[in-house]
Amino acid sequence: MFLYPFLDKLGVFLFTSSQMGIYIGATLHEVAHVVGASNALGEIVSTNAIIEKMIRVIFLVPFLILLSLWLIKTNFHTKQEKSKIVIPWFAIFFIIVVGFNSLGILEKSTIESINFLDTFALTMAMSALGMETSIDKFKNSGIKPFYLSFILFIWLMIVGYFLVKLFF
């Protein structure tokens, strides 16, 4: 989140504003990170980044449903477990809320209140997660998860770079 604007200002990426937005939206995992990184680079970058990220989020719904169906078909579960389709309800509700919000039924003040409550609830959830986390948990997990995280980060940066250059 902090690295992308810095590298962009150094001229490392050589992207247009639209390309940089797509790159940020495609390679950062969290919506808030996409918003933070892209806002530091301007409105065009921010708009493209957020749209790209929302497209990724929306595509989670069919992906999770197809993954669930594939796992059932390939007998991923043990023989003792009864195979049944697992519906990703959070993803279904996400699409419902997007559709409902797109109708424009709710007033702007109501949406702002809901967004405030959403931000508050997310802040509380992240705080609770932080309360459950300690440096000892990181120490006990060893160095391998950090290596994997670093490799995946570099992979996303490089593959994302070439895909944006190739298609946009």
TrEMBL record:
**Any Pfam family:** Cons_hypoth698
- Regions that span the bilayer: 20-42, 54-73, 85-106, 113-131, 146-164
The entry's keywords? Cell membrane, Membrane, Transmembrane, Transmembrane helix
Name used for this protein in its record: Sulfate exporter family transporter
Q: Which organism is it from?
A: Aliarcobacter cryaerophilus
Name the predominant localization. Answer: membrane
Q: Does the keyword Membrane apply?
A: yes
Q: How does it sit in the membrane?
A: Multi-pass membrane protein
Name the protein family: Belongs to the UPF0324 family.
Q: Which PANTHER family match?
A: INNER MEMBRANE PROTEIN YEIH-RELATED, UPF0324 INNER MEMBRANE PROTEIN YEIH
Q: Does the record bear Transmembrane helix in its keywords?
A: yes
